[in-house]
Structure to design on (98 residues):
């Protein structure tokens, strides 16, 4: 359940945060022939962790999100909906993705 913190801003539960941080990891991983296990090995985390991130059960740190993007050869903004709009776009680097 969403609560308000002391400053009046909404405080999201972990489940709600996971729902907002949608991702397209699987969409980029599968064409590369990478299993969850192999992707996890490439970046130093477990297959279970990759699965939890893909399914929105776990929110990755920025470092892990960046490591995943680098392993998949894409900009982090291509696989994560970082602004919660449902759009995957990059205005923060020169990757050319929009």
């Amino acid at each position: 359940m969403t609560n308000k913190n002391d400053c009046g801003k909404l405080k999201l539960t972990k489940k709600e945060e996971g729902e907002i941080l949608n991702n397209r990891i699987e969409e980029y991983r599968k064409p590369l022939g990478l299993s969850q296990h192999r992707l996890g090995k490439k970046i130093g985390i477990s297959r279970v962790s990759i699965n939890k991130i893909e399914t929105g059960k776990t929110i990755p740190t920025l470092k892990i999100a960046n490591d995943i993007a680098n392993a998949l050869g894409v900009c982090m903004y291509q696989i994560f909906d970082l602004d919660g709009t449902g759009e995957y776009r990059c205005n923060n680097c020169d990757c050319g993705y929009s």
About this structure: Confidence is low (pLDDT under 50) at residues 1-7. Strands lie at 3-4, 10-11. The longest helix spans residues 62-72. The chain is about 45% helix and 5% strand.
